[in-house]
Design a protein that fits this description.
Length: 265
Amino acid sequence: MVAHAILEPIAYPAVGVSLDIDNVSHAFDIDGAVLPVLDDVSLTVEPGEFVALLGPSGCGKSTLLRLVAGLEQPRSGSLREGGKDIEGPHPSRVVVFQDPTLFPWRTVWNNVALGLEAQGILKQQRPRVDAALELVGLSSFRNAYPHQLSGGMAQRAALARALVNDPQVLILDEPLGKLDSLTRITMQAELVSLWQRKGFTTLLVTHDAEEALFLANRVIVLSERPARIKADIRVERPYPRHRGDLYLADLRRQILSLLGLEATW
């Protein structure tokens, strides 16, 4: 077995804010019936922390992200960002979805500039677009169109579009789910690097236990719908992490057991 040196984490200034999810329950009205999705979920995320949400498909993970983003309001309970109630979307909280959703008729630069354009500040803030493209390694593709990008490059463009707003909270809804395995591994490392450099609070939804353990400070394991928190697991490993780490393998075994998948280990 090849021994890997475990490096101490690099100290970066945290610009993220706290998230408080207090006794949140939510449901949808479908064909006259009420479908419970979240059941009394409480969670505190510290400023600059990276937290992964892991649970069965359809359990309510993405719904919880939408509530944090302010795209919906919960049936009961409260959500706060930096101590202030989350009452709707705000540029301080940005979402990156599984699909990059780039506009095909706009160049990469113009796709990344959308947020600043919508706020009416693009003219005076153009350098922020260039800085965001530099951050994700797409400066040389600034004039390319989405159809000219690989899947990983398109997802980098989507990240740049989020980062151009200098978010305090980055919300990731399975952003790497459709990438091939090699690109996904590369993008995981890049996400960690971006998070360390920028210091934003990060909330990630994933179905991949290994991905959650590779990226996050904490892994929140959710139950079947309506989702409740089954476990809050702190990952006591510095970065960069290595997939051959026996500590991470043991945590993965624990998580799969909590999800009823211990037989697949």
